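Q: Please design a sequence for this.
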């Protein structure tokens, strides 16, 4: 096992992939609510823009800072050296082509959900005038679905880093984190209990080698 695999935030965000079926179910329920108010192609285009554009732009320009949970995020100056080294890997190893391909895959998934959405109509109690609420639900669900795919995808790419490459990775500069990463929510000093003293990672850092 690679030494950096002990970082719990990696596994927390990788596990977010398990929420993908649930958020896609919200998309199906939303599309099945009431009768379309706009041409189908236009509604799907709106959903695609809502769900794809923000997350794709974020991952290509200012990747998601994984040291966050729900509505809170660790302050950049509270990150350990090992965590900042992980940010360096996220900045360097996230493949833009894979990111774009994942976005394209989600567009295909949206079309597949639309084709089966009528099957969910029987479990939706809302009437025709609530279709706008259904579209809102589908938009939020699709946005969350895309996020729950893209973040674990970037985590997987980092997890395959070799131990040698990890040892050679320099910590990301604290002052550049807010500028180059998306740090969501309220910034706090601690979210999870520390699992090891910072000195352990510092001893293994290349910066400590004479």
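A: Design:
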């Amino acid at each position: 096992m690679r030494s950096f695999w002990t970082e719990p935030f990696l596994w927390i965000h990788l596990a977010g992939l398990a929420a993908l079926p649930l958020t896609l179910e919200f998309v199906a329920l939303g599309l099945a609510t009431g009768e379309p108010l706009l041409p189908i192609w236009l509604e799907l285009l709106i959903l695609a823009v809502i769900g794809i554009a923000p997350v794709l732009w974020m991952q290509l320009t200012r990747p998601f800072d994984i040291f966050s949970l729900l509505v809170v995020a660790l302050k950049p100056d509270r990150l350990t050296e090992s965590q900042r080294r992980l940010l360096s890997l996220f900045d360097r190893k996230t493949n833009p082509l894979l990111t774009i391909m994942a976005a394209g895959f989600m567009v295909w998934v949206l079309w597949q959900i639309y084709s089966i959405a009528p099957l969910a109509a029987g479990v939706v109690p809302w009437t025709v005038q609530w279709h706008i609420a259904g579209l809102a639900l589908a938009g939020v669900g699709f946005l969350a679905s895309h996020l729950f795919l893209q973040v674990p995808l970037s985590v997987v790419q980092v997890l395959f880093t070799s131990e040698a490459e990890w040892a050679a990775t320099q910590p990301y500069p604290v002052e550049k984190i807010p500028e180059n990463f998306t740090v969501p929510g309220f910034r706090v000093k601690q979210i999870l209990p520390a699992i090891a003293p910072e000195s352990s990672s510092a001893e293994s850092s290349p910066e400590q080698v004479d």
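Q: Thanks. Anything notable?
A: The radius of gyration is 20 Å. DSSP finds nine helices and three strands in the chain.
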